[in-house]
Amino acid sequence: QLQLQESGPGLVKPSVTLSLTCTVSGGSVSSSMSYWDWIRQPPGKGLEWIGTISYSGSTSYNASLKSRVTMSVDTSKNQFSLRLTSVTAADTAVYYCARGLHYGMDVWGQGTTVTVSS
Amino acid sequence: EIVMTQSPATLSVSPGERATLSCRASQSVSSNLAWYQQKPGQAPRLLIYDAFTRAAGIPARFSGSGSGTEFTLTISSLQSEDFAVYYCQQYKIWYTFGQGTKLEIK
């Protein structure tokens, strides 16, 4: 059974780069059938798609975040990652990783809370 | 960007009754529409995809309909575990989510 687990710092200071990792178990990040997504949810608000990466490393990002986002995949560790530069308080959110298929996101991690504060 | 608008923001329904949630797209998404359920402190769960196909393990009381720009999620007989926030999502052009409908107990 495919499972995803996010990891990263719970607290970061403004202007730094946030780095999060999603570890895939029970399946392979190299699967050609899957895409891998990051989604975030600010406190008390809705869901925002951040970006998608394929097993081959091709990426697509939300236009509103594109200048600050980089996603990568590490097949040797069965992980994929998110980097978000120049964070502000507006980036405070629960960050989820998920598996994307052609019909939506069917497996999600439990989420990791990131707070941006000095 | 395709904007997804859900209505109502909050829906109060009694257990055992039917709930109808709406989602509108700013342009046609064909049938590239999914519905998710999210309970407090949990990740979203995929309920419906391709506008009307139930995901694995989803009870038959959940049904989806619509195409183009207008979509509906219907829960035929509400159970206690169904009270949650529901999001629609288009995947015609990448992904955008609606702002959510909170389904609460009346």
Q: What's the layout of helices and strands?
A:
The complex is a heterodimer of chains A (118) and B (106).
Chain A: E1 3-7, E2 11-12, E3 18-25, E4 35-41, E5 48-54, E6 59-61, E7 69-74, E8 79-84, E9 93-101, E10 104-108, E11 112-116
Parallel strand pairs in A: 2-11
Antiparallel strand pairs in A: 1-3, 3-8, 4-5, 4-9, 5-6, 7-8, 9-10, 9-11
Chain B: E1 4-7, E2 10-13, E3 19-25, E4 33-38, E5 45-49, E6 53-54, E7 62-67, E8 70-75, E9 85-90, E10 96-97, E11 101-105
Can you tell me about this structure?
The complex is a heterodimer of chains A (118) and B (106). With 118 residues, chain A is mainly beta. Chain A contains no helices and 11 strands. In chain A, strands 2, 4, 5, 6, 9, 10 and 11 form a 7-stranded mixed sheet that branches. In chain A, strands 1-3-8-7 form a 4-stranded antiparallel sheet, with no helix packed on it. In chain A, a hairpin with a 4-residue loop joins strand 5 (48-54) and strand 6. Chain A is globular and about 40 Å long. The mean pLDDT of chain A is 96. In chain B, 0% of the residues lie in helices and 50% in strands. Chain B has strands at 4-7, 10-13, 19-25, 33-38, 45-49, 53-54, 62-67, 70-75, 85-90, 96-97, 101-105. In chain B, strands 2, 4, 5, 6, 9, 10 and 11 form a 7-stranded mixed sheet that branches. In chain B, a hairpin with a 2-residue loop joins strand 7 (62-67) and strand 8 (70-75). The N and C termini of chain B lie far apart (35 Å). The mean pLDDT of chain B is 97. Chain A binds chain B through residues 37, 46-49, 52, 60, 62-63, 96, 98, 100, 102-106, 108-111, and chain B through 1, 32, 34, 36, 42-46, 49-50, 53, 55-56, 87, 89, 91, 94-100.
